[in-house]
Design the sequence.
DNA sequence: AATAATTCTAACTTTTTGGTAAGTACCTGA
DNA sequence: TCAGGTACTTACCAAAAAGTTAGAATTATT
C-alpha cells in the first residue's frame, strides 16, 4: 500500500501556458488578433472595430505584435498613408486559441437578450 | 462594380473575446486553471506547482475564481486545515482554451535545448 | 489659406496589478 | 513549552499597464 503520488508538472520557465501568455496576455492583444483574423486590416479599420481602445494602445500593441512576429505590417508610400496589418504564419497559429475563447464566451457568458 | 464592403463585427460589450478575457485575463488565472485541470488540488499543492506565485496572488485568484463560479472550494474542518479546489462545470469548459494555449506554446515557443 | 484624412509619436497622469513581509489560528509531536 | 505544518489575511509599497491630451507629417480639397 503505497502513498498516492501526484504527478504535477510545475509551472516554471518551461511552462507552455506561461510562454504563450507572455505573447498574448495584454488587455487588447487577443482582441486585435481576433479582429485581424484571416483578413487584412488597416490601422483605421482596427480602430473602428475596437471602439474602446485608445490610439496609443492600438499602435503600441501592433508594434509589439510585429516585433513578436505575430503580425506583418505593410506600409504603402501614399498620401494619406495606408498601412495594412495581417497575421503571419505564426500569428495564424494562435487563431485556434481565439476560436476557443470565442466559443466559451458565446456559449456561457454572452446574454442573448 | 460596387465598392468592396468589409464585414466587421466591432468589439463592443457583446464581444465574446472581451467577455471571456474578463474572467480569464489575470496574470495567473489560466495557469491556475491549467494546474487544477481535471484533478483536485490543495492550496499547498498549487503553491508548489506554481513556484513563482506569491501567496497573496494565489488566494486572491482562487477567491476570484470561486466567485466567478469557475472553481469550487471545499474546506475540511480539520487541523491542520485542508482545502481542496477543483474546476466547476463551467470551469471545465475553459480547458479547451488552455489546451490550445499549451499546444501553441509547446510547438512554437518552448526551446527544446 | 484653412481643413480634412490617415497613421502615428511623445509627455504626462492615473489606475491597476503585483510583491513583500509580517501576522493569525489551531493542533500535533518533540 | 516551543517549533512545525496548513491555509490564509492585512497593510504597505513598487512596478507595470493603460488612459489623456496634444501634436506632427503630407497632400488633396474647398
Sequence:
Amino acid at each position: 500500500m503505497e502513498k498516492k503520488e501526484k504527478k504535477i508538472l510545475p509551472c516554471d520557465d518551461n511552462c507552455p501556458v506561461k510562454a504563450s501568455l507572455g505573447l498574448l496576455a495584454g488587455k487588447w492583444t487577443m482582441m486585435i488578433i481576433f479582429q485581424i483574423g484571416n483578413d487584412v486590416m488597416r490601422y483605421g479599420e482596427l480602430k473602428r472595430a475596437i471602439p474602446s481602445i485608445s490610439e496609443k494602445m492600438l499602435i503600441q500593441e501592433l508594434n509589439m505584435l510585429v516585433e513578436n512576429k505575430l503580425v506583418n505590417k505593410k506600409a504603402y508610400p501614399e498620401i494619406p498613408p495606408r498601412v495594412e496589418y495581417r497575421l503571419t504564419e505564426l500569428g495564424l497559429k494562435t487563431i485556434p486559441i481565439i476560436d476557443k475563447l470565442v466559443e466559451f464566451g458565446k456559449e456561457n457568458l454572452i446574454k442573448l437578450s
Remarks:
- Residues 1 and 13 of chain B are 35 Å apart (CA to CA).
- The domain at 26-108 of chain B is CATH 1.10.10.10 (Arc Repressor Mutant, subunit A).
- Chain B touches chain A through 48 residues (CB under 8 Å).
- Chain B has one domain: 26-108.
